[in-house]
Structure formats: structure tokens, C-alpha cells
Design brief:
Strand order of the largest sheet: 3-2-1-4-7-6-8-5
Order of helices and strands: EHEHEHEEHEHEHHEHHHH
Helix content: 40-55%
Number of helices: 11
Low-confidence stretches: none
Radius of gyration: 19 Å
Mean pLDDT: 94
Number of strands: 8
Distance between the termini: 42 Å
Strand content: 15-25%
């Protein structure tokens, strides 16, 4: 069991969603000592003043730290981690909402591993229309990069401080996205373990317009190609050719211009696969690899 838990939340103009997350953290059943660090990555929404008078400042041992000297969530996570007092560093997101029991489940699973990842669910704070745009595995299934190594989302990830030191913290070069998966792959390179906590559930907020959904999936596709470029020498495989062919076939046969009774899908899920493939193509060019 950790002697002290630090919950680190990288933040940039996240009000009022941050208050919803803080309310959820205040309702956790974990009884050990903890602190919540808000690592401010250049917010202009009055965040510091808002937190100074926050009613949960005392109960959560709420602290504000300045991470405005470099853009990006990984930098904010590193700044928050360096300021943290805990021996277990738990990362959450400002615009999500943790479920009751989340922290207890993370701490319990961390007791048998070097790091632990929780589970995201997308039904709690998104509309049914937006939920239909994204496939999501069940909570019992630990995500992997094509069978290579387990990974977890940065909005529900915990590292022992010794683990954080051994891997060198978060990679600030992954400043657009993918810093969480990159960190998890680095755990594997160092021979460290990533446990899965299926009861550590987080309501994950999705992009809620087709435009932002499209742009986000392109970014994540680019990140996948970059991860392959960085970790192929450590055994990360390309996507299997049958999977690539299935994706291309899906995009052709079930595109939005086909009659609905033939394609039997919605535009958002088609854009999910199309933008991801386009992002992988762009990332392959950027990183001089072949990854689709």
C-alpha cells in the first residue's frame, strides 16, 4: 500500500468540467492520505483564482502548480509529478469523471505491479449519437498495441514513483497525443509490468462534433505510425495485413454515400476508421515507415 497518493491532473482551460471531476474525486471511498495536484498548462480561464477559493481545497489537499513554460499534457504531467509528495502517482483528466471506487481499485491493482491502468467508458457523459462514433472494448479487456504490449489511457494510469524515475517520466515530444501509450511501451522495454484494474472506471469525454472527431482520429493515426517508428526495434509489429484489408474493404463498401440499408452504420463510425487510416498514412510519411 502506498504511504501517500498524489493524483495529478494536467489542465488547460478545463473549467467548468474540472469541478465535476473534483466532485467525483471527493466522493471516492479511499481512506488513505492523498493530494490532488492541478498542473496548469497555461490556462486563461481564471483557474488559479478559482482553485484558491475552492470548497474542496481542504478535503482534497488541492494544489496548483505552474506548467505553462511548455505546451502539452506530458509536460504538465511531468511538472505535476515532480511537485508531488506521494509514492504512488495517479493520473486523471480534467474533463472526465471518475466513478466511485476508482482510486481504491487503482491502488489495489498497483500493489502487484510497477504501474496500473484503469478502464474508460463512454456512455456516462456522452450522447448516444457520439457514443456510436467510437468502438470501445469491454472493461475486462486490457488494451494492447496489436498484441505487442498492454497499454492504458492517461486519464486512468498510475505509476509508483520508482517506476516514474526508472522510465524517465513522460515523453514531452509526444505533445499532441499518444504520450500515454508511449509511456506504457517504455514500461515494456524496461521489463516493467502494467496491471489492469477493470473496476477503476472513468467516464471519458469524447469529441462531440464530426469535425473535432475527424481531426482527433487523424492525430491518433499519426501517433500510431510514430510509435511503430520508435518501437519497431523493440518488437512492435505492423498491423496485420488482413486487418488493413478489412479496414479498406469497410471504407469502400460501407461509406456514407451508400444507401443506409446497405452500409448499416453511421457516418461517425465510418469517419473514425477513415481518419485513423489517413492519419497512419500521414504518420508513415512523416516518420519514413510503412504502417497502415
Amino acid at each position: 500500500m502506498p504511504s501517500y497518493v498524489s493524483i495529478i491532473i494536467p489542465t488547460h482551460n478545463a473549467l467548468p468540467e474540472l469541478d465535476e471531476q473534483l466532485d467525483a474525486l471527493a466522493e471516492q471511498d479511499y481512506s488513505g492520505p492523498l493530494e490532488v495536484i492541478i498542473s496548469d498548462n497555461g490556462s486563461t480561464d481564471g483557474l488559479r483564482k478559482h482553485l484558491a477559493a475552492h470548497p474542496l481545497g481542504g478535503p482534497l489537499n488541492l494544489r496548483w502548480v505552474d506548467a505553462s513554460d511548455r505546451d502539452g499534457a506530458p509536460h504538465a504531467r511531468n511538472v505535476g509529478s515532480e511537485a508531488a509528495q506521494g509514492d504512488l502517482l495517479v493520473y486523471a483528466a480534467a474533463d472526465d469523471r471518475v466513478y466511485p471506487g476508482w482510486l481504491s481499485a487503482m491502488v489495489a491493482a498497483a500493489g502487484e505491479a510497477d504501474a496500473v491502468g484503469g478502464v474508460i467508458e463512454i456512455d456516462g457523459i456522452n450522447t448516444p449519437e457520439v457514443v456510436a462514433w467510437r468502438p470501445e472494448p469491454g472493461p475486462e479487456e486490457q488494451a494492447r498495441v496489436f498484441g505487442y504490449h498492454p497499454v492504458a489511457n492517461g486519464c486512468t494510469l498510475a505509476l509508483w514513483r520508482s517506476t516514474y524515475r526508472e522510465v524517465g517520466g513522460w515523453n514531452e515530444e509526444y505533445d499532441l497525443a499518444g504520450d500515454d501509450y508511449e509511456l506504457c511501451l517504455r514500461l515494456g522495454v524496461h521489463g516493467l509490468t502494467l496491471a489492469h484494474a477493470p473496476d477503476a472506471l472513468v467516464a471519458y469525454r469524447l469529441r462531440d462534433t464530426l469535425d473535432t472527431h475527424w481531426r482527433r482520429r487523424i492525430t491518433l493515426g499519426r501517433v500510431e505510425a510514430r510509435l511503430y517508428a520508435d518501437y519497431r526495434e523493440h518488437g512492435m509489429p505492423r498491423r496485420p495485413p488482413p486487418a488493413v484489408l478489412r479496414t479498406i474493404g469497410y471504407l469502400i463498401l460501407r461509406n456514407p454515400w451508400m444507401p443506409r440499408f446497405i452500409r448499416r452504420n453511421n457516418t461517425g463510425i465510418w469517419l473514425f476508421h477513415a481518419a485513423t487510416l489517413l492519419g497512419r498514412l500521414r504518420g508513415s510519411i512523416e516518420n519514413r515507415v510503412f504502417y497502415f
